[in-house]
């Protein structure tokens, strides 16, 4: 593991880290409710790995993934947050990492998972940033090496949260979702069209993913 501690960055002073900066705010309470609902929704099945996704971009995936991860860590769970939105990664900015090896370097066989994982300022919350986009990075999200990364994460953390690419038009999100215990599907109220919401749901289910919750964001 990389033992640097990284402070939240400029991007962080937004909705992204509200659960950390304002743990008693109304928004933070809503993320705690989602965290608790994950437990109830799983009906006795353990849900250790959760993919946060939405039909399209800009619907609040990153915000929800970070806040959920923070709320889980606040309850004392060891949490790993993984940036699997490799085309447009942002978590390295949220947590102010300057140069960071990340998931793509692990998938390319350049480093081991522990060398790409960074502690954050938040107790019990570690981050596996995306790393640079390289030849085949996207394809490697559905590879044996990715399975090994998942195994590593499940073995070392109580919860693994994936900030993913949107579902529609991104086969890698479906593949990842199918390998995890559950998916949280976000919709932006007023923005997500019903047909796109249904298409995203069907696409995830067709891939074999388990949708454990739907969140109407910004309602
Ligand atoms: N519940 C919310 N309330 C207010 N603003 C939000 C909320 N969720 C997300 N946002 C804002 O919407 C924008 C897109 O959110 P983001 O989490 O980056 O979406 P995505 O990861 O799906 O592209 C950001 O500026 C974020 O701060
Ligand atoms: Mg995002």
UniProtKB/TrEMBL annotation:
The top EC class is transferase
Gene3D superfamilies annotated for this entry? P-loop containing nucleotide triphosphate hydrolases
InterPro entries reported for this sequence:
AAA_dom, Bact_polysacc_biosynth/exp, P-loop_NTPase, Wzc-like_C
* UniProt-listed CDD domains: BY-kinase
Q: Can you state which reaction this protein catalyses?
A: L-tyrosyl-[protein] + ATP = O-phospho-L-tyrosyl-[protein] + ADP + H(+)
Question: What keywords appear on the UniProt entry?
Answer: ATP-binding, Kinase, Nucleotide-binding, Transferase, Tyrosine-protein kinase
The AAA domain covers: 56-184
**A GO term, aspect molecular function:** kinase activity
EC annotation? Answer: 2.7.10.2
Enumerate the NCBIfam families for this protein: eps_fam
Family recorded in the similarity comment:
Belongs to the CpsD/CapB family.
What is the protein name given in its UniProt record? Answer: non-specific protein-tyrosine kinase
Q: What is the lineage of its organism?
A: Bacteria, Bacillati, Bacillota, Bacilli, Bacillales
